[in-house]
Each structure stands twice: as C-alpha cells, then as structure tokens.
Amino acid sequence: METFDYVIVGAGSAGSVLANRLSEDGTTTVCVLEAGPRDWHPFIHIPAGFMYTLVNPSVNWMYTSEPSEWTGGRRIAAPRGKTLGGSSSINGHIYNRGQRLDFDGWAQRGNLGWGYADVLPYFRKSENRLASAGSQAGDETFRGNEGNLPITDLEWRDPICEAFIEGAVNMGIPLNRDYNGAKQQGVSYVQRIIQKGRRVSAARGYLKPAMKRPNLTVRTNAHATEIVLEGKRAVGIKYNKGGKGGAPTEVRARREVILSGGAVNSPQLLQVSGIGPAKLLGELGIPVKHALTGVGENLRDHYAPRFVARVQGATTINEKSHGLPLVREVLKYAWNRTGILSLNPTLIYVFWKSDERVDNYDLQLTFTPASYKEGVQSTLDDFPGVTIASWQQRPESTGWVRAKSADPFVAPLIQPNYLAAETDRQVLLAGMKLARRLISTPEMKRYVVREEFPGAEVTSDDGLMQAAKQRGTTTFHLMGSCRMGPASDPTSVVDDQLRVRGLEGLRVIDASIMPTMPSANLNASVLMIAEKAADMLRGKAPLEAAILKD
C-alpha cells in the first residue's frame, strides 16, 4: 500500500493550489486523487467553450438540485467540474473577490485570522494582475503581480456594451475600473482569468507546473469512495481506479487527508464515510463513525432571473454564432485568439444596492450582448438579443447536500432552497427592477426593440417574482456545506484551521468551508482559501495582515 505525507481528494481550484504549495517542499510527498480525466478536452481551453462544458458529462458531474417552491418545481442544473482544474476548467472565467465586509463577517463569527486584512495578502499572492492599456493595474495595497494566475481585463468593445455602461453612469452608478480594488460598487467590464485568448484554470496555473516535481503524484479517474479512519484519525482514502466498476485501491497519508472536492462532493464523501448527521447516516444504513451535525448543511447559492431584450442597429453574439459569421469568428480565433470564441459569458458587471437610501451594496448584475434559450447558457437565441441578470449578493436562504445512498457513486441530493428567505425575495425583486431600468435607459433605447422576457406587460411585483420562479437559475456558486465556525457553533464542521471537528488528520479546504456567501463569484475566494491553508499545513506563519485605511 502506497503512503504519502498528504493525500488530497480533488484537483479543482483548491486541490491544485495545495498540490503546488505543499510539493514546494521537496521532502514532502503529495498524492492528488481526481475523479475526472486529464484536462485535454479542447473546449476547456477555448473561453467560449463553457457553453459546451456546462453540459458535457465527460468533464462535468452534471448534478441537478431538488425542486423547490421558488424554482416552480423545476430541477436546476448544478454543474461541477470533473477534470483537472475542477470547476475552474468549466466556469465563466470571472475573477471577483467580493467586499471587505464579507470577510470581516467571517472573522466576527469567531473565525480568527479570516478578516479582510488577513486574507487580502493571499488574494494578492494568487494573482498576477495584467491590466490592459488604458486600464488601472490597481493599487498595490489590493493587487498582486507575482501570482500564478493572470488576471486580465476584457478588451472586447461593443456599441451595445458601451451604451449600457453610459446609461448606467448617467443613472448615477459610477464607473469603477477595478472592482477588486478598494471598492466594489459601480459598473465596468469584467476581469477574468484568461491570457492570450486561452483559459488559465487552476490546473494550468498551479498543478501543471508542479507535476514536474518527483514528490507530487496526480491520479486521474480515481473516484474517492471512503475516508479511512483509525479511531478518530484519518489515515487514508479508498478509491476506485477507473471510476465505478474500477479496481478498489487504497492510499495512506502519514500527516493529513485533505478534502477539496467542493461544496457537493466533500460533504458527500464525509457522509458515506460515516462522518455527518447521525440521523441521516442511520437512515442510509451507514455506520456512524463520527457524528457531526453540520456536514452538508448551510448550503447556499446565488439565484438569478435573466431578462432578455431583442435589439437592432448592432450585431450581437447571437448572429455571429451561426453560418458564415461563425466561420469568420473561428478563423479569427485560430489566427490571433480574438473574436467571440475568446469571450466569457458575462462582459459587464454592475454592483449596486437594493435600497438607494442605504449604502449596502447587495446586488450583482451582469450584462452581455447575447441571449440564451430558456434562460440557460448553452444554447443561443435565433434573434439578436441581450441579457441582463440580477441576484442578491449575500443570500440568507440555506439548504443542504445529503447522500442519497451509502453508495458513493450515487449522486447526492442537493437542495439550495432558493429564495426561501423573505429578505432574499425582497432584494431580488429590487434587482429585477434595476435590471429593467438599466436596459431602458435613453442610451439603450437606441438598440432595444422590446423586452422578450419577462415582457413589458409584466409590471407587478407578483408578476416579476413569477418570472423569477419560471426562468431563474443558478449562477454556479454553491458553498457553505462544511461551514467553518467556532466550537460554540453547533453547525460548524471545521475550525478556523480548517480541521474537521473531533477528528485528527483531516481537513476540508474548498468552497464548502465558507461561513457565509461572499459578494462575488467564488473562484477567487477558493484560491485565497487554499493559499492560506497551505501555509497552515506547512506550519508557516501567516502572511502579514494588510494595513488598510477605513
């Protein structure tokens, strides 16, 4: 039986960072187990390929959430990356950290060392900020330039996008050239983890360079089936080589086992290993090895209704994606890595507030000169269209991830309970009204013919919320299902060192440990978490906290 110092389950964003940082010490051996294949699929690396990886079971777990009241009884897709790089290989490429109050809130919940001043040095450590000509590289207090991942500006310019930004500014929403700097609020083109027209996943930025080291072993198509415990200590992982039906194999960890499977797979693996809520485990016939109530609880996600408008007077991505125009775009991308194949799904961000009287920036909106059938992001409409989505940045609604069976190959049940909290519905309604105002500015009226969904005739609050119920969908930001918290929190799963409570030699390091939702997409924060955790694992002093002005 092979033994390594560390065994990491999952080669996604967190697992890739940890593999790199832990293997920097040549005396330390590291084994990474990834259930999916190598990241050879070409659509992973072409930015617009997200439209295909979102629905491709060869690189995507293809999970779906359980129906609920505010999804109108629909099952919502819950894509999760299943390849080297994990979800950073299939996501929308966006780099968005969130707000200072998000992380200060984590610390105020009793998680020492997780305030904004503490985590900012790790955000900086992970990034190499490459600003385009005419853009701001960023204040060095907030931005880094020596990290593994290039953070670039979207250089695409489009008349409809320019009109949208101009209209927002004239409404009183300021232009913000760096929403990852001192302040998030405002409107701007996006920052993304793309360089020279290619996706830079965590696998490309962290894992691939480290795989040259002799002390790092990466095994793909290795589906973890159980955490091996000796008493109250994790000592290894059982996995099937080749997935379901493959050869059962076991690998041991001298120091620690690290779960980096994400907000769905990490709690499921804990539960099928006998670590979790005793009642659930009993119902599934799984022997309880360590009762831990919070495993799988506190799940949150962003839920976004998308408004669609038909336009004229300018060409949208929809028209460029068919026939001869598409041929031209393919040739353009092949020649110099530009054109629509170099684009991510969102081109413009707006961060604003649901109540104009209160400086609480609780709304995130996205705009793109493209539209998708039935509100999904895998099939473009046949007419010239634009899309604006809105969602509450910090949802209060919580759900769960629960193993459906003792069989680790059976997909778990996922229930985010979208919009269950009344406050979420109130903020979302304000976001939908703001979205409509943003596509109805004088600047946008030059292009907008009519609102296709939900339609100008839908004006009442009840009608708008019915539209959210009918076509709202995930923004792919599942988190919180192994929450970090103090011992006084009965639902916490890990402490502020990310150690599983009551067990030795076992940590969870991924989006599942987030105590509350950041005001952001999650990849940037997961990279930060893993960078910080790597120092913990290596016994290194944390990076010096940032000195910030109030």
Using the coordinates shown, work out and report the CATH topology of the largest domain.
Glucose Oxidase, domain 3
Note the beta-strand portion.
15-25%
Number of strands: 27
Instruction: Look at the helices and sheets and give the structural class.
Output: alpha+beta
Q: Give the CATH superfamily of the largest domain.
A: Glucose Oxidase, domain 3
Give the overall pLDDT as a whole number.
96
Straight-line distance between termini: 55 Å
The CATH class name of the largest domain reads: Alpha Beta
Molecular structure report:
- The protein has about 550 residues and is an alpha+beta fold.
- It has 2 domains: about 1-40 and about 200-300 and about 480-535, FAD/NAD(P)-binding domain (3-Layer(bba) Sandwich), CATH 3.50.50.60; about 45-85 and about 150-200 and about 300-475, Glucose Oxidase, domain 3.
- Strands 1, 2, 11, 12, 13, 14 and 27 form a 7-stranded mixed sheet that branches.
- Helix 1 (about 15-25) packs parallel to helix 7 (about 200-210) and helix 1 (about 15-25) packs parallel to helix 15.
- The longest helix is centred in the C-terminal third of the chain and has 17 residues, at about 420-440.
- It starts with a strand and ends in a 13-residue tail after the last helix.
